[in-house]
Structures are given as structure tokens and as C-alpha cells.
């Protein structure tokens, strides 16, 4: 298989116009769960950039559990992401939720994000596989490691080898946390595949107090990067405020992981 270490013994390094993910490079993607307004996004982007991250995250299309929750600003949100890239130089990662919008999202994004709920949307996987954009593939919330790697294979089989895996927590019997962050999967994937793997401790825990400890653990476990929800004012977030870091806590996290990466 194309995803396997047998096919490619050395680590794949995905290069997003100079921002590298994989190998010995620690990539950090951070920003709000959802793009809410231009002011909110630009404020978040400046915070994220100042703390040292290379990528700005933010959803313009939001796949929400309830149809009555905020669904995202759609193309207006994509335009705001492009404006934030213009202002800060950060690369933009944002979610694409269906095959029909892959063309539109590709006009704005540097990295296409496939969400947990779409990990086995094979038509979507094949469509992003035919683009020239790097793809961040989140693990399905009830997917085995093998199913996750097969999803990556769908993308690669169409010719796009720039796939980044993302562990974001799985469904277990535990209810204290929103999901159970499976850091064992990071170590497993590192032996099975050459693809970079990053960790999302925000969705992986659902609790902001757990985000810094689990981010530190992820880096120590060998993750190639992190994707973190950061909001200028988490209490006012339209989406996922409970798991979003304040600017101060994000800055602390960046200092901590730098120290851990230096010794691992
Ligand atoms: C997100 O990153 O905001 C998101 C919706 O993540 P997931 O697909 O992992 O739930
Ligand atoms: Mn979120």
C-alpha cells in the first residue's frame, strides 16, 4: 500500500510553501473553531502568529451535531481566512465538507481538512485526491487505525501523496472527556506509515484545562505537530469555547512544546 512504511521507508515531509510537516519539523496549526467575523479572525491570527505557529485554522463550513447550531460563514468565511493570510503570512487550513465545494475551498485554502465525520466519505476522499492541495485527514470518531490508513490510501490512490494524518480522539465508554485521545495511535501510525501525524488535543479532550498537558504528551509521543483551538475570548466563542485556549495559555503551550521537541 502507498501509505505503508514498506512502500516508503523514510518519513514523508509535506511542504506547504515552506512550512514543513513531518520528519523533524514540528508544525502548529491554531485558531478558532469557526470563523465568526473578520475582527475575530484577524485578532486570532495575530495571536497565533506572535506565539510562533505557522498555520491558521478556522472553519467556514461547520459540520455541527445539531442543525440548529452555527453552521459557519461559508464563502465569506473563506474570504476572511484569505485576508488573515494576507495580513500575517500564516498558511490557511480549513475544512471541506463535500465534493461539490472542493473547488471553492481550494481557491482559498493552503491545506484541505477532512473532518472526523467525513473520514469514510470515499467520494470526498477521491475528489481531494485529485487536487494538488495537501490534505489533513482526521481520524473518524469510531475508526480503527486500519480504517484510517485505508482512508488515506483513497486520497493517495488518486495521485495526491501530501496527506497529513490527525488523531483527534475516539468514542469510548468514558464521558468525562468529549472524546478519548488515543496517543497510542500516534506511535502505531509512526511504525505503520511514512505519513506525518499530528494531534488535536482540543477535540480530543473537549476541555481547555486538558489541552496543554495532552499537547505536551503528544509531542513527547512523537507527533509531527498539533492543531489547537485558540480564541481571543473563549467565553464568547460561537463554537467549542469550552475547549479553546486563551491567547495566554496558547503562548505558554508554544513555549512548553518547543522545550519538549528539543529533547525528543
Ligand atoms: C474542527 O476541527 O473544528 C472539527 C470539526 O474537528 P473534527 O472533525 O475532528 O470534529
Ligand atoms: Mn471545533
UniProtKB/TrEMBL annotation:
BP terms from Gene Ontology: aromatic amino acid family biosynthetic process
Signal peptide segment: none
Domain DAHP synthetase I/KDSA: 18-256
GO molecular function, one term: transferase activity
Keywords from the UniProt entry: Transferase
The keyword Transcription is assigned to this record: no
Protein name, per record: 3-deoxy-D-arabinoheptulosonate-7-phosphate synthase
Lineage: Bacteria, Bacillati, Bacillota, Negativicutes, Selenomonadales
Residues of the full protein shown: 71 to 334 of 339
